[in-house]
């Protein structure tokens, strides 16, 4: 059981890395924003200024690279998959899913008229849920309901802790 939980953490690690990496690159102006500054009929930005194409691309690259490193570092002692290429494919899907989920959270916050940077539990749940949904067809057998619940609780706790750390390191303007 404990080994399966450790494997579950290693499984989701590319999504965590993908989701955390864009913060290090900050915003690069309105032209780099994923929504190009566009607003919907509600006069709110689609995603907001902090969702950039650079952050999206770097997040996917960092998450996928994490999967590559895990594929070669863990086989065979903590093997997550039969082959390294399967691990890399899952890492790519988790990374893209995490960033799509993060953008979905921003979209939802804008529709709810929440200020950018305000805490919202949906941020953590959406990035995690959509990352899992993208990779679910390729999930390993150890990723069962107990592991998913454990990862969800871990995701929320880690999200709070890493946001506080990023704030203290002056990478974010707010601690959430």
Looking at this protein, list some descriptive labels.
mainly alpha; 5 helices; 176 residues; single chain; 61% helix
Overview of the structural elements:
- By secondary structure, this protein is mainly α.
- It has one domain (2-168).
- The chain is built from 5 helices and no strands.
- It has helices at residues 2-20, 53-74, 84-111, 121-135, 145-168.
- Helix 1 crosses helix 3, helix 1 (2-20) packs across helix 4 and helix 2 (53-74) runs antiparallel to helix 3 (84-111).
- The longest helix is centred in the middle third of the chain and has 28 residues, at 84-111.
- It is elongated, with a radius of gyration of 16 Å.
- The protein starts with a helix and ends in an 8-residue tail after the last helix.
- The mean pLDDT is 86.
């Amino acid at each position: 059981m404990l080994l399966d939980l450790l494997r579950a953490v290693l499984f989701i690690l590319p999504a965590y890395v993908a989701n955390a990496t864009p913060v290090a690159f900050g915003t690069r102006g309105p032209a780099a924003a994923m929504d190009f500054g566009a607003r919907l009929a509600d006069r709110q930005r689609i995603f907001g200024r902090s969702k950039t194409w650079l952050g999206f691309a770097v997040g996917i690259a960092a998450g996928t690279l994490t999967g590559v490193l895990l594929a070669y570092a863990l086989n065979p002692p903590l093997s997550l998959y039969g082959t390294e290429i399967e691990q890399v494919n899952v890492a790519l899907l988790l990374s893209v899913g995490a960033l799509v989920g993060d953008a979905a959270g921003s979209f939802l916050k804008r529709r709810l008229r929440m200020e950018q940077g305000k805490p919202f539990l949906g941020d953590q749940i959406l990035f995690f849920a959509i990352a899992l949904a993208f990779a679910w067809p390729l999930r390993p057998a150890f990723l069962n309901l107990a592991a998913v619940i454990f990862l969800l609780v871990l995701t929320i706790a880690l999200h709070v802790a890493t946001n506080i750390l990023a704030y203290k390191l002056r990478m974010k303007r707010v601690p959430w």
